[in-house]
Specification:
Layout lengths: L1 H27 L12 E11 L7 E14 L4 E10 L2 E12 L4 E8 L9 E6 L2 E10 L2 E13 L2 E9 L7 E10 L2
Antiparallel strand pairs: 1-2, 1-10, 2-3, 3-4, 4-5, 5-6, 6-7, 7-8, 8-9, 9-10
């Protein structure tokens, strides 16, 4: 009986593995190695970050700065450096983008100079000119979904938004928005 209980516990994972294989086959039809090419260069960034208050409503903090993005590994990776200023002072961050040629997906890993720690990477791909990368993180002891979205991509501007969901992706709350304009 314990063996059959164990088997039934893992049976739903078998369906997930089959579903994941189907997604992998679809992703393998398209090489996304150049999806982030639009991001190379120097950008002026207008950031809005949701700041939770211990008491009272959350407020949006605005920051202005620059983002510089360079190629690594002939474009299969890139490194982004962010510098911005706002009411909370000077902000520095870096993001590493890595392309996985086997899964045809990107990972995005951020680190802030405030703590020097790499965050959990988001992983995903581009479809129809829009990139969506996902991860799970713990916030106040609760696991939530994180979605990073790259959208409104044109030669001299684009938008980045990070949102969280604590209901399994049914609804999303943005907590970081950056609108970027190319510096010529």
């Amino acid at each position: 009986l314990p063996g059959s209980m164990l088997l039934s516990c893992f049976n739903p994972l078998n369906g997930f593995a089959q579903q994941n294989t189907a997604v992998h086959k679809t992703a393998a039809q398209r090489d996304g190695q150049h999806d982030f090419d639009f991001n190379f260069g120097k950008w002026r960034t207008h950031i809005q970050r949701l700041q939770s208050q211990p008491k009272g409503p959350a407020t949006w903090v605005k920051m202005e700065g620059t983002v510089t993005v360079g190629k690594v590994w002939n474009g299969k990776a890139s490194l982004e450096e962010i510098e911005a200023d706002g009411p909370g002072g000077h902000f520095q961050g870096t993001t590493l983008f890595l392309y996985n040629p086997n899964s045809h997906q990107w990972s995005q890993t951020f680190a802030s100079s405030a703590d020097g720690m790499l965050e959990t990477p988001t992983i995903g791909e581009f479809k129809d000119g829009r990139g969506e990368l996902f991860s799970h993180v713990s916030i106040d002891g609760k696991m939530v979904l994180v979605k990073d979205t790259w959208s409104e991509i044109v030669p001299n501007s684009h938008r980045f938004e990070e949102a969280i969901s604590d209901d399994g992706g049914k609804s999303w709350r943005p907590h970081f928005i950056a609108n970027l304009e190319r510096i010529k």
